[in-house]
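Problem 3 from the worked examples.
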Amino acid sequence: MLVLLPPSEGKTAPAGGDPIDLASLSHPSLTEARRRVGDALAKVSGQRNALKVLDVGASLAAEVARNTTVWTNPCDAAARVYSGVLYDAASMSSWDDATLTRAASRLRIVSALWGAVSPADPIPAYRLSMGTTLGRLGGLAAFWRKRMADELDTLADGGLVVDCRSASYIAAYHPSAPWVTVRVMREQDGKRSVVSHMAKRTRGLLAAHLMRADEAPESAQDLADAAAGMIGDSLVDVALTAKAKAPDELTLVIAG
């Protein structure tokens, strides 16, 4: 099983630590690609039109300015740098060694800057989304799609891929292994509707649930059965939908 997560938009900048060592990250074959994206990001972040290119507002100017020193900024484990609803729900920053060891082979965070990292990989804070076009590199989803597929397919090794990413990050990698996307809906007064904030939280809870399990699901039905073990509190139903020309879909239903 391989669980795919999106990065958080916001990052917690480490207060101290060594600068990034690209060779220390998972998937060292991506080193040159990571260097190219980092160099392009540092360059564009120092330009007058940086906010426009990176599609962020003036309130994030300090984060964009921090990109200019991405190679010398302090690092911490990705589990602590990525923050926000999904990561808070997963309590990833407090995962014990056993859970992090499972995550090293079971989970990847798909990143516009790093391609894919494990929660234990040391990275600096940065501001960059997969929907960005970076000069000669072009659109980042297309850039990484050409370079990341073999790495993640090898890691998945034909096993189940559980996809908790958003659309722009899905565009960067389409698994060749059995593939299940995760959708979250809210049930209120007998009616179901799509949710956003709570979807991130629920996907985070699912990721943590799967990382803590001794046995990884081997099929879409195994995944649905594992997710059903979360029913209680806000989760009220789990449904699996098989699709002929698209990934299977796991729907997690939360109470309104």
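Problem 4, a separate protein:
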Amino acid sequence: MQDFGLVFQNVVLWVAVAACLIAQVLKLIVELARHGKVSFRTVVNTGGMPSAHSAFVTALACGVGQSSGWDSPEFAVAVVFAIIVMYDAAGVRQAAGKQARVLNKIVGEFFEDAEFHEERLKELLGHTPVQVIAGCALGVVVSWLAAKAY
């Protein structure tokens, strides 16, 4: 436990965190371009363009590949982890968001005249494939730009 402070010297981790933060800032810029205003909820909500999850795990995997070798077991683990996260973001969570939208509509129509005090289900849970691909590309670029730091 005495070496835990070394985590703060892990360049691969910090580059991945930077990619995630850059994606979050880009979400604000996209929000401003699309709607003419900035909603800081965009930063804390899931979904949006580009996928910060994808940028994070892709930068992590690329950093591991650049520092440990593209044929290392660590890179293999990072790639599998990245694929699972991106599949979940675009597949499972996107489907859950669609289900929430349908359920909110059904509840809204069914309880239109009655008092119903339940909170609506969150509908924006996942990412479109384009958002995931954009996040993935961002992660690769950020990791590539930081290559000298590894």
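Solution to problem 4. The chain has a mean pLDDT of 85. Residues 73-110 form the longest helix (38 residues).
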